[in-house]
Amino acid sequence: MNVDARIQQSVVDNLSNRPLPILTGPFVIGYDPGTESPGINYATPLRAARITATDVAKLIEEFRAVSRRPRLEYVVSAAPGLEELLLAAGFTVEERHEYLTCEPGSLVVPPTPAGITLTEPATPAELAAMIDAQNRAFGGDQEPSEADIARIGRLRSQGGVAVMALTESSGCAGGGLAVPPSEGVSEVAGIAVRPEFRRRGLAGAITAGVTERLFTAGADLAWLEAAGAGSWRVYERIGYRPAGKRLYLVRPQ
């Protein structure tokens, strides 16, 4: 199985681990009733599936049935003709991303910035502190909910990774996650550093900390996507390399 196929299968498996996944024809929807976030409630095609316009119409109806906005993320090569079907059904392209991958032999673990300790959150209070730091880093001020805390706790109980950056006096400066590995593959996501702690190398240290823990636990391929040129450089410095293309599409409810 090539890298594109492994990444796409890992997405299928990740969505299938949502609390109430919905399998509809050649798609799986990662439905989570605890949140309306489109970054969690989205669909992806099953690998090597044959997809028709009728399948897409049924997918839209399934999203409507659970009051979620129809949205997909997938590796482009996994469903070459899907974009045209989705555009014809009223979807629009949200993002086109190139994903990066890292293997154990290419990971470079940088030093952690002075005054900061990387650790795994062990209590609900620590999970809340990490989620709060991530929310603020991404420009939001939403307080962590019980559903947020339960979701990350569930991720960790299934073999996922969570890492938080603790300061000596200012609490949590940031954090990052990795979903439970599927056949040795895991997505690293949610890498976030509060604005006042940026430009110290902390994002790279958090990403490397998450990735290293994945590899120690037995994963052999980590992947992620960069939000911009700055993030891209951070990830390349610790051993991630461009590997393939992913597509995001969304449709009005």
UniProtKB/TrEMBL annotation:
InterPro entries associated with the record: Acyl_CoA_acyltransferase (IPR016181), GCN5-like_dom (IPR013653), GNAT_dom (IPR000182)
MF annotations from Gene Ontology: acyltransferase activity, transferring groups other than amino-acyl groups
Domain N-acetyltransferase: 117-253
Membrane-crossing residue ranges in chain numbering: none
Name assigned to this protein: N-acetyltransferase domain-containing protein
Species whose genome carries this gene: Paractinoplanes ferrugineus
Lineage: Bacteria, Bacillati, Actinomycetota, Actinomycetes, Micromonosporales
